[in-house]
Design a protein that fits this description.
- About 25% of the residues lie in helices and about 25% in strands.
- It starts with a strand and ends with a helix.
- The strands form 5 sheets. The chain has a 6-stranded mixed sheet. Strands 1-8-6-3 form a 4-stranded antiparallel sheet, with no helix packed on it.
- The chain is built from 9 helices and 18 strands.
- Helix 1 runs parallel beside helix 2.
Length: about 450
């Protein structure tokens, strides 16, 4: 009997997932827990295992479609089994999985529209494989009037046909008429300079040819924001619209911080402290400072301020899918060794796309460190509904005067953004003062 595999529910906050790539095709025999496809949530990428065994009779969505959780993905059953009662008449076509090299693999034949519950492509949309081939061959997809895919979507064979048809004329070259075997413009396009010039009488004086018209604005590509990038865009705008953000900056003497980091790096490996980073030490100091300032370790939603006894510390992570914020739970209760190990685990999972959505929510305070890029100070945007965020900048040399002697001291930069609705500037200054003290006495802070 045919069965349906649905899009799994991945955490309470996940409402839909984007299909990245199919790992099976119609006709394949799959086993329980075999990977059907890879998907991207608004926070991570993961694989969808089959919940049943059987032959793939129908694939209901295309790569790039956004699928609500618990909606049907695939129909499994016995070969030749009637599934008309399970698959809508306008369901998506049978197709093979994506081939790694888009230039070598032709697109499937003309396809029927996607099912009524799918997010179908509109006219002018470009499939991922078509976009990859166009980029590799320098073809401007805007020059393709209409695609042969569903709803006019440009698919790989449309790009291949454009390549086979020869070079495309720029608008200026098209207006002048003429022909050319090859083009020297962007993407091989024929410019006015490439057009065959008419024969000139031998006695006629040479005529200076006008400079070719520029190919304006040149090749472009457009696609809607999706996945992590779309979520980040929405949350950043909402954060600025819903809170009164004020940023305070200061610096701290990083001498002790750098010395402890060097000592830990060269310590006995059996202690498990050799991989502790400057960022680990700074975040550890933040987790120890926050309990003294409940309004900083808090959330503000619908006019209700909620403070937390436990510090659930988020840290901004730069990943191939965009900005993610893993959360170290109960950070204030961890030892330095435990804290560093948990930060490494969550950071690696975020970069590899394997982090559980549950570890990307529930934070009460966030640290964003871009000092490694040479940025000294910046204005971090609060991770709503939290009430504050700390930005960590680069460590830079600064002149100091001690006992009438001028010297150089390494100082680390901090930028604290607070929600002025619930935190006053003076409170922000006090928090930074205590954090600086914890940083400058980091060897004592890690023992607390």
């Amino acid at each position: 009997m045919a069965t349906i595999v649905v899009m799994p529910q991945l955490g309470n906050s996940v409402e839909s997932c984007l299909i990245v790539e199919w790992a099976v095709a119609v006709g394949d025999v799959v086993a329980v827990d075999q990977t059907l496809c890879s998907i991207e949530t608004d926070k991570s990428t993961m694989e969808v295992p089959s919940t049943d065994a059987g032959t793939v009779l129908k694939i209901l969505w295309e790569e790039g479609d956004e699928v609500p959780v618990k909606d049907p993905l695939v129909i499994l059953g016995e070969p030749g089994e009637d599934i008309s009662d399970l698959a809508p008449a306008d369901s998506a076509p049978d197709r093979a999985p994506t081939v790694p090299d888009p230039a070598d693999a032709p697109e499937p034949a003309a396809q029927a529209p996607a099912p009524s519950y799918a997010t179908t492509a509109s006219t002018g949309a470009v499939s991922p494989r078509a976009r990859a081939l166009a980029g590799a061959k320098g073809v401007d997809t805007a020059s393709i009037a209409e695609g042969s895919g569903p709803h006019g979507r440009i698919i790989e064979r449309d790009v291949a046909a454009a390549i086979a048809a020869g070079p495309v004329l720029t608008s200026a070259a098209r207006a002048l008429g003429g022909t050319a075997d090859t083009g020297t413009g962007i993407g091989g396009r024929v410019t006015t300079a490439d057009l065959a010039a008419p024969a000139q009488p031998s006695a006629a004086p040479a005529v200076t040819q006008a400079a070719p018209a520029a190919d304006f604005p040149g090749a472009t590509s457009s696609e809607p924001l999706k996945g992590v990038r779309k979520v980040v865009a929405q949350r950043m705008m909402a954060s600025l619209q819903e809170s009164a953000q004020l940023t305070l900056t200061t610096t701290a003497d990083a001498t002790g911080l750098l010395a402890l980091r060097a000592k830990l790096k060269n310590s006995d490996e059996s202690l498990g402290l050799t991989r502790v980073t400057i960022n680990d030490l700074v975040c550890f100091a933040v987790a120890k400072t926050l309990p003294k300032y409940p309004v900083f370790n808090a959330t503000l939603e619908d006019g209700v301020l909620t403070t937390y006894e436990q510090v659930h510390l988020g840290f901004a992570a730069d990943t191939p899918r965009g900005l993610l914020v893993p959360v170290i739970r109960s950070a204030q209760a961890l030892t330095l060794k435990q804290f560093s190990a948990e930060a490494k685990r969550l950071g690696a999972d975020a970069v590899n796309g394997a982090i559980s959505p549950e570890y990307l929510s529930g934070g009460t305070f966030t640290v964003s460190n871009i000092g490694a890029f040479g940025i000294e100070t910046f204005t971090p945007v609060i991770n709503r509904p939290q009430t504050a965020i700390l930005g960590v900048g680069a460590t830079t040399p600064a002149p100091v005067v001690a006992d009438g002697t001028i010297g150089v001291q390494q100082r680390i930069n901090f930028s604290l953004t607070i929600d002025h609705q619930v935190i006053d500037g003076a409170d922000g200054a006090r928090f930074l003062k205590d954090l600086v003290a914890a940083i400058e006495a980091i060897d004592v802070t890690v023992l607390a």
